[in-house]
Amino acid sequence: MRPKSDHASGGSAAAAAAYAASQPSEFDSIDPILHLIRFLPYGFLRPPRLRLKLPSSLALPSPMTVFSLVLLTYFAVVSGLVYDVIVEPPGIGSTQDRSTGAVRPVVFLPGRVNGQYIIEGLSSGFMFVLGGVGLILMDLALDRNRARSVRISFASFGISAIVIAYAMSMLFIRIKIPGYLW
């Protein structure tokens, strides 16, 4: 978008015209179908004039409420909640020990990258959320209006959260795919 000047003088008007001529316009396309799609429906269709008002009893949610909902949605998505609902995998698996014959629980589905147990997805999602919260804490540590001890606490907790999340995620990958990234 080109800048607008408050008062046009001879020199600035010429400079603005030269700047506008050098910038590509949204109408510079030579595609006729694009022009038809852009102008044809709006030649006879008009959007309705709606004067909608929000009810007075409805208030906007607080920023922390929105943040919590976004973080919860992020956790659900990266945990594979949609996969868990569609495929319905078991919570944990089991394997039989060859030497003793005892059945022991298995949390990670070994050898299958595109499959998971429910606990595996939840633990991986928690590690991703922990890393994201660590980044947020490190960002809060940059605020100069906070006390030095609070900034140091935010930074140390943020760095430790990122390190723990990274180490555990790499451990999860190595358990799931033996010999990967070695």
TrEMBL record:
Subcellular localization: Membrane
Keyword Repeat: no
Predominant place of localization: membrane
Pfam families linked to this entry: OST3_OST6
Full protein name: Oligosaccharyltransferase complex subunit ostc-like
Keywords assigned: Membrane, Transmembrane, Transmembrane helix
Keyword Transmembrane helix: yes
